[in-house]
Design a protein that fits this description.
Blueprint: E1 2-7, H1 10-21, E2 29-33, H2 40-50, E3 65-68, E4 75-80, E5 103-108, E6 122-128, E7 134-139
Parallel strand pairs: 2-5, 2-6, 4-5
Antiparallel strand pairs: 1-7, 3-4, 6-7
Length: about 150
């Protein structure tokens, strides 16, 4: 199932992502698609809020992964695969050491490791329309059907 939304401010993008974060489950993997500056990290800020995580979300570009944990809530592992050129390189990043089945993964530049992602991955494409407007397309299951309402 595919769902498309348009947000006109970073705050609207965060709010949309917050709603998505509220329906995420253990083992979910989100694969982001979008150019530099599209808003993938902004979107992840909203996911974390929706998941009940109070941590300050930042880009994992130089760390490859940022971890966000809360008390009694799912953990979020936010990966940046910009510098990873294929799934063969994942072993050196420690990607397989993270508890995918016990948490939620959000993967920026997921196209670089597509063959390593689960079959039921949730795909989120963020297209920059202008400085503030984003077209956000979600490929996932029925959980996302009423998100925009």
């Amino acid at each position: 199932m595919q769902f498309t939304f348009v947000t006109c401010t970073p705050e609207e993008t965060i709010e949309l992502a917050r709603k998505i974060g509220a329906v995420l489950r253990t083992g979910d993997c989100i694969a982001y698609y979008g150019d530099l500056g599209a808003g993938k990290t902004t979107f992840t800020r909203g996911l974390a809020l929706g998941m009940g995580l109070a941590d300050e979300v930042s880009s994992p570009t130089f760390a490859i992964v940022n971890e966000y944990h809360g008390k009694g809530v799912l953990s979020l592992y936010h990966f940046d695969m910009y510098r990873i050129m294929s799934s063969d390189e994942l072993e050196t990043t420690g990607f397989y050491d993270y508890p995918a089945g016990e948490s939620v993964f959000a993967v920026e530049w997921s196209e670089n490791i597509e063959d390593a992602l689960p079959d039921d991955v949730i795909k989120i494409r963020i297209d920059r329309i202008d400085d503030n407007t984003r077209k956000i397309t979600i490929e996932g299951d029925e959980r996302f059907a009423h998100i925009g309402n």
